[in-house]
C-alpha cells in the first residue's frame, strides 16, 4: 500500500501545516496505539522524546492524548537524542518509542518517527498499516499530565563507558550541538571520558535549532577546531542520530570517511561481522575499493538508515550507514547514533596513535557530483522515459569505472541526481546529460 504521510524517516513538515499539527498528531497517536494493540492485544508504555523545537511540547502532548485514547501509556523523556529514545525502549521493554523531531530541518518544521519494541524502526508495510488506522477525527480528551522519565543520564553513562575512564585526558574536542537535543548529552559523555570540550551551538531557544550551526552548517566547527588547537570537532543534526567530523587541520569528514575508518579498523582486528559493511546507493565507490582491498565487502541498499538497518539484519552484518553521517553500529545502538560513531572513531585514534587527518586517508574518493532539481510534481520513475534511457547509456559507458543515479527525494519535491567517474570532467558531463533528459520528462522549476 502506498504511504500518504510517512516519508524516508517518519512524518515531517512545517508545524501548523496540513500534516504536522496537533490534531494530526493526536490521530496518529491513536492509530499507532491501535496498530500495537492489534498485534499483541496488550497495553504498555510508549516513550516519547523530542528535540528543542518550540513546537515539540505541543506535539508531544497531542501524541500522548491519542496514545491514551488507543489504550497505551505515554511517558515523556523530555528533550533527548533519538538514539537515547531507542536505547530506553530496549532498556525498559517498552512497546513503542516516539521521537518528535525534524532532524536537520529548520525550526519551523517538525516531525514524528517511531521505534517498535526492541528499538527497531518501522518498515514501509508497518507504516502503511498505521496510516490505514488513522481516525477521521482526533480524540477529545482532557490534557492530563504526562509522566516523565529521565533517559539522558543512562544514555550518557552507557556511551561514555565505551572508552576507558580518563581515556581522553589531555584531548581538546569541539562539539557543535546545533542548538539541538545533543546539547545535553555529547559534551557530558566526552567530559566523562576526560576530554576538554569547547561547545558551540549549545544555547537552544526553541527557534535556533540548526540555524547556521550543526551538521548542515559545519563551517563554524571547522574554524573553532583550528582556533582552539583541538584534536577533532563534532557536529550533530538536531536529534543526534548522525554526525559530521572535522580533523585537526579543519577539514571535514563525511559519513563515508567515518564508515571507512571504522570498517578498516574492524577488519584489521578480524572483528567486522561477516566481513561486511552496509552503505546506501549514495556512498562513494571509493568505499567499496577501500574495503575490498582490505579483504571485506560492501553491500548497498536504498537511501535511509531504515534500509541500512534492514540490510544489516538480512546479512548479519553489524556496521553500516550513510554518507550523510548516519552511522549504525548494532554493537552500540539499535539505530543510528552520532555520539556512538564519534566514540568509535576516538577509540581508533587512541589505539593507533594516528590523527584523524591520517586515518581518513584510507578512503580515496572517486570524483562525484550531485544535483537537486526542484520539480513541479514527482511522477513514477518508470514514466521518466528519457531519463531512464540516459541513465542506461551512461551506465554502459562508465562500466565499473563510475556510476549514475536518479531518484526523487522522500521529503521534498526534488529530483536528486548523482554521478561518479574517474575524472571530474566526466562527472560534470554526466550530470549535464541527466539534467537535459530530466527536463524532457519533468517540469523543472
Q: Beta-strand percentage?
A: 15-25%
* Spans of at least 5 consecutive residues with low confidence: none
Mean pLDDT: 94
User: Helix share of residues?
Assistant: 25-40%
Q: Count structural domains.
A: 4
Report how far apart the termini are: 30 Å
Please state the overall shape, judged from the principal axes of the Cα atoms: globular
Rg is: 22 Å
Named at the architecture level, the CATH assignment of the largest domain is: 3-Layer(aba) Sandwich
Taking the sheet with the most strands, its summary is: 6 strands, mixed
Structural class, from secondary structure content?
alpha/beta
**CATH fold naming of the largest domain:** Alpha-D-Glucose-1,6-Bisphosphate, Chain A, domain 3
Beta strands, count: 18
Number of helices: 14
> CATH H level of the largest domain: which superfamily?
Alpha-D-Glucose-1,6-Bisphosphate, subunit A, domain 3
* CATH class descriptor of the largest domain: Alpha Beta
Could you describe the 3D structure shown?
The protein has about 450 residues and is of the alpha/beta class. It has four domains: about 10-150, Alpha-D-Glucose-1,6-Bisphosphate, Chain A, domain 3; about 155-250, Alpha-D-Glucose-1,6-Bisphosphate, Chain A, domain 3, CATH 3.40.120; about 255-340, Alpha-D-Glucose-1,6-Bisphosphate, subunit A, domain 3 (Alpha-D-Glucose-1,6-Bisphosphate, Chain A, domain 3); about 370-440, TATA-Binding Protein (2-Layer Sandwich), CATH 3.30.310. The protein has helices at about 20-40, 55-70, 80-90, 125-130, 150-160, 185-190, 220-230, 255-270, 285-295, 305-315, 340-350, 355-360, 385-400, 425-440; strands spanning about 10-15, 45-50, 75-80, 95-100, 110-115, 120, 170-175, 195-200, 230-235, 245, 250-255, 275-280, 295-300, 320, 325-330, 370-375, 405-410, 415-420. Strands 1, 2, 3, 4, 5 and 6 form a six-stranded mixed beta sheet that branches. A five-stranded mixed beta sheet has the order 8-7-9-10-11, with helices on both faces. It has a four-stranded mixed beta sheet with strand order 13-12-14-15, with helices on both faces. A hairpin with a 6-residue loop joins strand 9 and strand 10. The longest helix has 19 residues, at about 20-40. The model has no long low-confidence stretch (mean pLDDT about 95).
Amino acid at each position: 500500500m502506498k504511504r500518504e504521510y510517512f516519508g524516508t524517516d517518519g512524518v515531517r513538515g512545517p508545524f501548523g501545516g496540513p500534516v504536522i499539527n496537533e490534531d494530526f498528531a493526536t490521530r496518529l497517536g491513536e492509530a499507532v496505539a491501535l496498530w500495537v494493540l492489534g498485534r499483541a492485544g496488550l497495553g504498555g508504555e510508549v516513550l516519547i522524546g523530542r528535540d528543542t523545537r518550540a513546537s515539540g511540547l505541543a506535539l508531544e502532548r497531542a501524541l500522548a492524548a491519542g496514545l491514551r485514547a488507543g489504550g497505551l501509556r505515554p511517558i515523556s523523556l523530555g528533550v533527548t537524542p533519538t538514539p537515547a529514545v531507542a536505547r530506553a525502549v530496549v532498556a525498559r521493554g517498552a512497546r513503542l518509542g516516539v521521537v518528535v523531531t525534524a532532524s536537520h530541518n529548520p525550526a519551523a518544521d517538525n516531525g514524528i518517527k517511531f521505534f517498535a519494541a526492541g528499538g527497531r524502526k518501522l518498515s514501509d508495510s508497518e507504516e502503511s498499516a498505521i496510516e490505514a488506522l488513522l481516525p477521521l477525527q482526533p480524540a477529545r480528551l482532557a490534557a492530563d499530565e504526562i509522566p516523565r522519565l529521565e533517559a539522558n543520564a543512562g544514555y550518557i553513562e552507557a556511551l561514555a563507558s565505551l572508552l576507558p575512564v580518563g581515556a581522553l585526558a589531555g584531548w581538546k574536542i569541539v562539539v557543535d550541538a546545533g542548538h539541538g537535543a545533543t546539547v545535553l548529552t555529547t559534551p557530558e559523555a566526552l567530559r566523562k571520558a576526560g576530554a576538554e570540550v569547547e561547545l558551540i551551538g549549545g544555547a537552544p531557544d526553541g527557534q535556533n535549532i540548526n540555524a547556521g550551526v550543526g551538521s548542515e552548517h559545519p563551517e563554524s566547527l571547522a574554524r573553532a577546531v583550528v582556533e582552539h588547537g583541538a584534536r577533532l570537532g563534532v557536529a550533530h543534526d538536531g536529534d543526534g542520530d548522525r554526525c559530521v567530523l572535522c580533523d585537526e587541520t579543519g577539514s571535514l569528514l563525511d559519513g563515508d570517511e567515518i564508515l571507512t575508518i571504522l570498517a578498516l579498523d574492524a577488519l584489521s582486528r578480524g572483528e567486522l561481522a561477516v566481513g561486511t559493511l552496509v552503505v546506501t546507493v549514495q556512498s562513494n565507490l571509493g568505499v567499496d575499493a577501500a574495503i575490498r582491498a582490505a579483504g571485506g565487502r560492501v553491500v548497498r541498499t536504498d537511501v535511509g538508515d531504515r534500509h541500512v538497518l534492514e540490510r544489516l539484519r538480512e546479512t548479519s552484518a553489524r556496521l553500516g550507514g550513510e554518507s550523510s553521517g548516519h552511522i549504525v553500529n548494532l554493537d552500540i545502538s539499535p539505530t543510528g547514533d552520532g555520539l556512538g560513531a564519534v566514540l568509535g572513531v576516538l577509540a581508533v585514534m587512541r589505539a593507533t596513535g594516528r590523527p584523524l587527518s591520517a586515518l581518513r586517508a584510507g578512503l580515496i574518493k572517486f570524483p562525484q557530483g550531485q544535483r537537486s532539481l526542484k520539480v513541479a510534481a514527482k511522477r513514477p520513475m518508470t514514466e521518466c522515459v528519457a531519463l531512464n534511457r540516459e541513465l542506461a547509456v551512461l551506465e554502459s559507458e562508465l562500466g565499473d569505472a563510475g556510476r549514475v543515479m536518479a531518484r526523487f527525494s522522500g521529503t521534498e519535491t526534488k529530483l536528486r541526481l548523482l554521478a561518479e567517474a574517474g575524472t571530474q570532467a566526466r562527472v560534470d558531463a554526466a550530470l549535464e546529460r541527466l539534467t537535459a533528459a530530466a527536463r524532457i520528462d519533468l517540469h523543472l522549476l
